[in-house]
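Re: the 387-residue chain
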Amino acid sequence: MRKRTTYWREKCISPDKPGDRTWMRVLLICGLLIQTPGHCAEPQERGYAITIRGFGTLGAAHSSLRDADYVASPVQPSGTGFSRDWAPGVDSKLGLQVNADISERLEAVFQVVSRHQVDAGYSPRVEWANLSYQITPDLRVRGGRIVLPAFMVSESRLVGLANFWLRPPIESYSLIPFTNSDGVDVFIRSRVGDATNALQLLYGNVKIKGVSATATGTQQIRSEARGMTGIANTIDWNGWTLRGAALASRLPASDGRLRFFNLGVSYDPGNWFVQAEWSKLMIPNLSRITKAAYVSVGMRAGMLTPYIIYSTARPGDPEPSAIANDQRAISAGVRWDFAKNAALKLQLDDVQVRERAGGNGYFINIQPGFSPGSASKVVSIVLDFAF
């Protein structure tokens, strides 16, 4: 698990609807590109190197619940269930990244990703666009559009091949569905014996686009988190990874503040692994406090990696507006690494919305037949690849 994440951190730092037709065109281009490996141009006389790499996921998901849509993230306007029987947009995505070593210390990174988002299309959007300067081997500063380090796998969150699971647990990762910020960060690394400590400090602004369930369906949300300050610290030692993160920002649209905390731990000796995270999101002026957690366990047996996940999200107060995300999921899946840069994954999810008044869980496009306590069986299959 960590080996694949490290690969992407080093290499990447780390048809019936118009949107579907756009996505199919992108996939045809991808099919041509995947025949050749990422290439690198190194004009030594100019002192720089350019590396171009790509990643993607082709998938489809099916939900047994017909009165609402199951989605992988609040940034998606529709999913499987009410809108579609089998939905490719839940997990499918395509990304392209360019790394340019301008000098020994200065690097430029540009990443664009196409995925199903709130505008109901697959238009490619800039995920990363930044310059980083390596002051010393253990001190780096970076500016531009950068990753938002809210979770353990934030760096590789959109790269399916870098993760053992089919998708991050939505009960936890939906708390902070946005993945980047426009600003600056500082990365400081230190070592004590066999342990490595990585500290990240950041400041910037985050654009928020998503959807939320209502009594009559779905409403779009567009806002901005300004003055986002954050800290993330990761300790790696003998197969163990311990991580903590905290974010805070102003929400001008609601005249309030957002605060987020995350704690994570993983142990990966090689042939098996366990990973868990706990998160808490607080938006006091909107009477929203949500706590979420998951634990996952898996093993590696040759080319196969079977795993199980238990994930839960609960409101932290009794306000009616806070209980919409009261949901738990039990998941079982398997990853098959049948090729060097490709893996096939199958995952089954048992998703239960807890029986509390007004609870929709993370389902959207709610229909009259939906009720608190509704459950869904979700089956998903994806092909993750890199080129």
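Confidence is low (pLDDT under 50) at residues 1-37, 41-46.
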